Amino acid sequence: MIFSKILINWYSINKRELPWRKTTNPFYIWLSEIILQQTQVKQGLPYYDAFTAKYPTVFDLANANEDDVLKLWQGLGYYSRARNLHATAKHVATNLNGNFPNTYKELLKLKGVGDYTASAIASICFNEVEAVVDGNVYRVLSRYFGVSTPINSSKGAKEFKLLAQKLIDKKQPAEFNQAIMEFGATQCKPKNPDCSVCPFSKGCIAFNKNLIGELPVKIKSAKAKKKHFNFLVFISEDEQTILQQRQGKGIWQNLYQFPLVETESTVDPKSFKSLIKTHELLANQQFELLLYNKEAIVHKLSHQHLYTQFWIVNVGKLPINGIPMENIRDFAVPILIGDFIEAFNF
Q1: Active-site option among 33, 130, 175, 182
Q2: What pLDDT, on a 0 to 100 scale, did the predictor assign at position 83?
Q3: What's the whole-model pTM score?
Q4: In angstroms, rounded to a whole number, what is the distance separating the alpha carbons of residues 115 and 107?
Q5: Which CATH architecture has domain 225-344?
């Protein structure tokens, strides 16, 4: 039995029941694929349910306010996905009359849609023979065929795409693609896969040469930079606080945060109070400063680690217009800020 037949047979028996597997509507497939980028199914499923409930059509999503989209996305991270999601919905609704492109090449032109997502939509919705290659697929193919080319290299991307394209079942491209992704997610797991029940174990090079832990190969990325964030959590006598919207193209674009002061290292209360006396929001102002967390909270992003301290700043009156503390959960904030808001219990 050839690779694709074994795989599809395994899938027919072992696949999970997931809502996006009950439709070929490109809006729902596209939405699920964007949510599941960098996200496991168990984490992404509630977000998929929330988005489809609030925005049942591409027109509903296109007409949404970006702040509302970001708020619903809160906790998933990689917020550029949400902004691209909204931008693409607007494009499809306005310029394409609500119809998604029906070919791989045209799908690639959509903002936020790369090779993997375009392949998934093209095969699942339009039966195009275009193989998907994501982290799960890299793992399955590298182990079974013993491919040691780094998966995060341009050579690796081309090699694995060609291999997947050779293997895909031309009569059942949608089933094949969903099967190989599911197989990597639930059977050929990154750590400690149960090879005793794997239908491919007899021919798997990684299994037979004891290379399960060595494959796939990935080039180590540059060491993450350390940054030290200090958030000023203003609290006034009339129970208002300050949130500011981040600008520019850096992390957390368009999300809200407390006023931020970056330092070269973690600072103690005495040093920090001296430092912020000239801050634009505190100059010539009486305030009481309290450190909320003695140990810095380490928030790890892909290229930087944020060592974070939250400072409670009690003032009589806010220096600028603020928001009622009871409304603070209405704003889209990074998960780091959201966790603090929940813990502080505004």
Answers
A1: 33
A2: 95
A3: 0.88
A4: 9
A5: Alpha-Beta Complex (3.90)
